[in-house]
Amino acid sequence: MDKSREAVKIYDLIAKDYADSFTKNKVESEIIDKFLDELPINPRVLDVGCGNSDYFEHFSKRNVDYTGIDLSSEMLKIARKNFPNGNFINMDMRSILFNTNFFAGIFCFYSLIHIPKKEVISVLESFSRILKPNGKILFALQEGNNEVFVPEPFLPEKQLFINLISEEEIRKLLEKIGMKIIYSKRIKPTSKYQLNYNKLFVIASKWNQKIYIPES
Q1: What pTM did the predictor assign?
Q2: Residue 76 and residue 90 in contact, taking contact as beta carbons nearer than 8 Å
């Protein structure tokens, strides 16, 4: 079973309810601004797992050259309807098709959590490849140490795959592909529609174009 694609099927089912219930979070907005402050003027940014593009307007106000990718066709329909000027592409983050050193930043909000642990390192390596030198990534993660299936808050009869990731785990993975953490913050869930885990926010910087070689 492809756990990631099974998660996408659930997002296709809840796309409208998810979009209707979303409200911008002040703390998250402040963290996004901190991330954008680390980037050059008018940066090219990739939103990985953009969904219905919750923060598209936020990026637009900061003059970001924005591209969003997601595997959920239903989420992308909403994004394209709400933001017809946006650049939204149906793409799997495990098979990213962009040129090397192309983006100044990558925005990865609650999407890496749907990738199994054994696949995360290859995803991060592709992120590093498409980032410019000194590029930055902002992750939003569900904090923990395990892989779990949890009831989806909008559709409790469906079990959603979640990869819980600790700060130590993501730090070690990033170091393997030539990146380092420059900022981290955690907050508690604030809504009944959020999963009951601490939210871990990490900004990482690319300092070395290092290709990951699996250990034998």
Answers
A1: 0.93
A2: yes
Q: Are 148 and 164 in contact (CB under 8 A)?
A: yes
**194-208 as b/e: b if 16+ CB within 10 A:** ebebebbbbbbbbee
Outline where the chain has alpha helix (H). Answer: 3-21, 26-37, 56-61, 73-82, 117-130, 167-176
Any idea which residue has 């409790």 for tokens? 156
Give 6-59 pLDDT, tens digit per residue: 999 999 999 998 888 877 788 999 999 999 999 999 999 999 999 999 899 999
pLDDT in tens, 182-213: 999 999 987 777 888 999 999 999 986 555 44
Rg value, the chain, Cα: 16
Average pLDDT, the chain: 92
Angle at 37 between CA 124 and CA 207, to 5 degrees: 40
Number of alpha carbons in the 13 Å side-chain half-sphere of residue 199: 18
Q: In this structure, are residues 64 and 36 in contact, taking their beta carbons and an 8 Å threshold?
A: yes
Say if residues 115 and 94 touch (Cβ distance below 8 Å): yes
